[in-house]
Amino acid sequence: MLQANAEEFCTECRKPVSYHLQKKTVTRCIHGKEHTFQLTEAVCDECGSEMNLPGLLDTNALETDEQYRSAEHILSVREIKTLMRLYNLGKAPLSLAMGFGEVTIARYLEGQIPSQEYSDRMRKALASPDFMKSLLEENRDKLKPAAWRKGMESVRQLEGIASLSPPLRQSIAEVLSRLGEVTPLLMQKLLYYIQGLSLALHDQPVFPEPCQAWIHGPVYPGVYQVFRDFSFNPIDDDRFAILRETENTLTEEQKALIHLVTDTFGLYGGKVLESVTHSEDPWITARSGCPADTPSSTELSQQDMKDWFLRLGTRYDLRSVEGLHQYIQDAAFCLFHPIQ
Ligand SMILES: [Zn+2]
Question: What pLDDT score does 242 carry?
């Protein structure tokens, strides 16, 4: 990056001089239309003439490109890359799915500016999985079957993600950004502890979705649908990172609680936490004597969850990392060393 205060050679003064950077307004004609850009120039501190700094031309070229695209509502290269990640499609398959020529997206990634029509189509696909689905159906015969299936599967997952409430989506994004790798089972348990602790400590849920008393502990069915393809593998899904960049529905207090849960419960395996939830009242009550291997979709009561964690709070400091570790260790110890 360009640094002020350094010395560079001034061709007027014929010696190295100090200089300063300032903004200048430049008008250029692009596609027969006048555009104004805010660019950076370097000025000699001694004679006041404009200087040619290494790197300045590149910086201004990039600035011109971004300002032009922003003014004309043309998708940026970064947004096109996001589109590829969202639908899990490479340059060529995405091009064909959009109804473009096979190398069109590759050219855009190299800096060619999309037409307004193509840019609008990509922007719409970025915002709407449903629109992408219609494009994939329309252009099905142009894509290889494997690529087409990958695209359709991404559409299905994105629709699932869209059906979750914004605070639940953002909670998942927070967990993923904090832990990096999380199995679907662990994710379910962390969401349950985030919700339970919030009910006890803040007297309100973080997200509106109820969880159900499934065989393997409390489960949020919508979240299960989104991640079911990961099975027992860590969720490696940067679409939630994209959401994290664009959404902000959680309070600082809620984010701090999520970090507390990831820094404690998040260090254990999903199976250990599943056992711990099996020893807790809210899940046991919702199962109400249902045999261990029988599916149930009974919802855990928020009141039960709140009461349980409030009771736990009389024995452990639920606001501290130490208190939560102590609870998990005690609960896991009881499970693995049952009193005979
Ligand atoms: Zn000079």
Answer: 64
1 Cα: distance to centroid of ligand 1 (angstroms): 22
- Residue 135's pLDDT is 97
Å from CA of 10 to ligand 1 middle = 5
Quote the ligand 1 centre to 38 CA distance (angstroms): 23
- Greatest distance between any 2 Cα atoms in the chain: 92
Query: In the structure encoding, which two tokens stand for residue 231, read together?
Result: 């099975």
pLDDT tens for 180-205 read 888 999 999 999 999 999 999 999 99
> Measured in angstroms, how far is the CA atom of residue 58 from the centroid of ligand 1?
22
- Give residue 1's pLDDT: 45
* Segment among 73-77, 141-145, 184-188 with least mean pLDDT: 73-77
Domain 7-72 has CATH 1.10.260: no
CA of 44 to the centre of ligand 1 (A): 5
Cα 56 to ligand 1 centre (Å)? 17
In the chain, where does the domain assigned CATH 3.10.20 lie?
A: 7-72
